[in-house]
């Protein structure tokens, strides 16, 4: 195990860990010798992912099949991992809704807020206290490029990620004096189940498709060095342009780009938008 990762031993808990960015973090942390607890809703993919980590890296890999949007789920996960020295927490589970804000049903809005905001905030509170008491640990929040401005048609999602960005940056300063590293990783478009399920043709947008492994590598490399990081050069430009131009310009730009990327069929679908979750 590299010296940097010794302070995060022995266990890493990763929500949304059965695929996508969550699994990429699990794979790279297991490579460094950390034991892994993968958390997601579906038991089958979880077990397959855990088996892969054991065979590939020779670490312990356990699973907790749990829907983090359910009331009481953060406490249930915390209780399920008691007795383990959890030195790393990766908060990767998330959900998005695409559509006119008033046509997305209220239950979907509520579910997004629970999974994207409430669950990460509560888990950081629960595990953060243990890490602070020990004087070591690491917490990785997953936000989004959309956290840096409002984005029409995914307004609730972008707002939830703005909360995560703000929370993580605040905790970076608050926890640092206790020996706990906190970082917010804000990926752009990434090759995962979430964008694949969206009614948007991202090929029509001036953005590049990143790999989950790259996002995880950049995030772990920056942990302990930065409060937040945006993987990818073009993504960095999009994220920080509103520091130099009026804030509403990027909001209008992304609104235009999202609308342009939708075919007539997908525009019609916005009348009956569906909830889309990272399938993990």
TrEMBL record:
Alphabetic keyword roster: Oxidoreductase
Regions crossing the membrane: none
GO molecular function, one term: oxidoreductase activity
Homology family: Belongs to the short-chain dehydrogenases/reductases (SDR) family.
Superkingdom classification of source: Bacteria
Protein name, per record: Short-chain dehydrogenase
UniProt-listed Gene3D superfamilies: NAD(P)-binding Rossmann-like Domain
Keyword DNA-binding: no
InterPro entries in the record: NAD(P)-bd_dom_sf (IPR036291), SDR_fam (IPR002347), VLCFA-Steroid_DH (IPR051019)
Pfam family, one: adh_short
